[in-house]
UniProtKB/TrEMBL annotation:
Annotated source species: Diaphorina citri
InterPro entries: RNaseH-like_sf (IPR012337), RNaseH_domain (IPR002156), RNaseH_sf (IPR036397)
Pfam families: RNase_H
GO molecular function: nucleic acid binding; RNA-DNA hybrid ribonuclease activity
The protein's name: Uncharacterized protein LOC103520380
Superkingdom assignment: Eukaryota
Phylogenetic classification of the source organism: Eukaryota, Metazoa, Ecdysozoa, Arthropoda, Hexapoda
Gene: LOC103520381
Entry-linked Gene3D superfamilies: Ribonuclease H-like superfamily/Ribonuclease H (3.30.420.10)
SUPFAM superfamilies: Ribonuclease H-like
RNase H type-1 domain residues: 283-411
Amino acid sequence: MSHPNFKLIEETLQIALNNLVIWTKNNGSKFSEEKTKVVVFSKRKTKFDLNLNFNGVNLNVSNEMKLLGMIMDYRLTWKDHIIYTKAKAMKAMNILKILNNRNNGVNRKVLLRLYKTYVRPIIEYGAPIYNSAPKAILNKLDPIQNTAIRIATGAFKSSRIENLLVDAGEPPLHIRREYLSNNYMSKVLYNVDNPMRDIILSISPLDSEILFQNHPKPLSLWFYENTNNLAEILPDLRLPNNVIPPWTLLHPKFEAISTKGKKHVLPIEFRNNFYEYLSNKRPSNPNICYTDGSKNDDTIGAAFKIADLTLNHKLHKMSSSFTAEAFAMEFCLSHLIKNNVTGNIIIFTDSKSLLAAMQQDVPKNVIIHNIQELSHCILSKGNQITITWIPSHCGIPGNEEVDLAAKSSNFHTISKQLILPDLKNFLKSLTKVKWQSWWDNVPFPNKIKNIKLSVHPWPSSNRTNRLEEKILCRLRIGHTRLTHKYLMERSDPPICDTCMALITVEHLLCDCVKYIRTRQKFNIYDKQINEILGDNPPIIDKVMKFLKEINVYKEI
């Protein structure tokens, strides 16, 4: 509890402890008095002594406590927790050091995966909670990730950290903490029973200016400020509303007009398969429906067609293409129920992922669950539903009509509902934008920035030869043994004997007149450094051969 009157706090807590003792006796439970601690959380420097007892045992007042793996100090600076986390993560780092070998160790892809699996979860446990710690304390965790990436990439310790992160495709920890906090808060918003949800919805921008000018902001306020137009998103968030127990649901039939993929069959053959499928179903006089969803840069739409009626719907701008397909199916089933369409119903869709999701026993997607319940309502009245896959853009008339309707700019209705997976994807994309912005703000001169402007990892960084992976990383960063060993030896920078210029990676690969013919031999002559060391495996192969030819391969 929180109150300015310290005596009142003591009395209230003692009453609560006495009630807890009575409850344990009545219910046969027992708490360890020795493990029970009292911590007074306060920013004041005054030391508070609480005289509390539990089951006749005086409780010790402590400056910190450990709860669910989180060490909370009385001022909530999280300093002790960060120190504990760092020590634990450094022990887990030993697995990377053991598997790493100078020439024949595990490749960087596996090492990075091991870091993400065994080391990073230790760092990120409770990140949304301890993210309110001062930056000076949070920065103590950065060397763990930096060390892991140096081991995986083979870069030198003196390499610039931001260059290492971009080469490995790993965001800084402060951006990772933002992503984890956003992910956690989106789950809170989706759970109507979570008390944090009401706190978030009651947040006002004035709270930031008035209450937290000189103090760390709480997670809810931080989330509110770091997501764009959040106030417009929250009212539209679609929450789960499960009515029918999943084990009692009746499911439709799932079929396909062909078992072959689009790559192996001509469109005319698919059309023939479609008409043959229809002719086989014709005796049952089915109601034919078509559904489709579409997403482009401007709009996201869903449409369905039944008989001569075609209706389309505009969806929330953050919706995914899968959501558009699912909405189209949901709208179609809702229309069938509303208009009391009965008998044998066949619904054609070109989304295999939608069919797979509809066959899940307990789907997490709220739209898929609603589709299952709508299908159950139709099937429980003695009707039949068959969901049939057809390929897209193969000239099937009904499919082409709903495809055009979904892409149209004129919509019959507009739906602003947003589901949790799409909200999480939006927050994830927001984090990627911040990471790219962080890299864009890194000032020039920066050697790897002349080569790699995007933060996304390059597939060409993964080589079959471990030594080549290390060499390629050092070349791109511009920090090699040949060009920078003078820093360790405390000597003068190396000078080219032929050109009398400072030896750099760019000088070696592009400018040095001594190796003009060798560059011509391997067809890397007259190329810029970003072309030579870019995401182009064939050119990278030539670079490795070039380095061996001029006898500097092992000096990198």
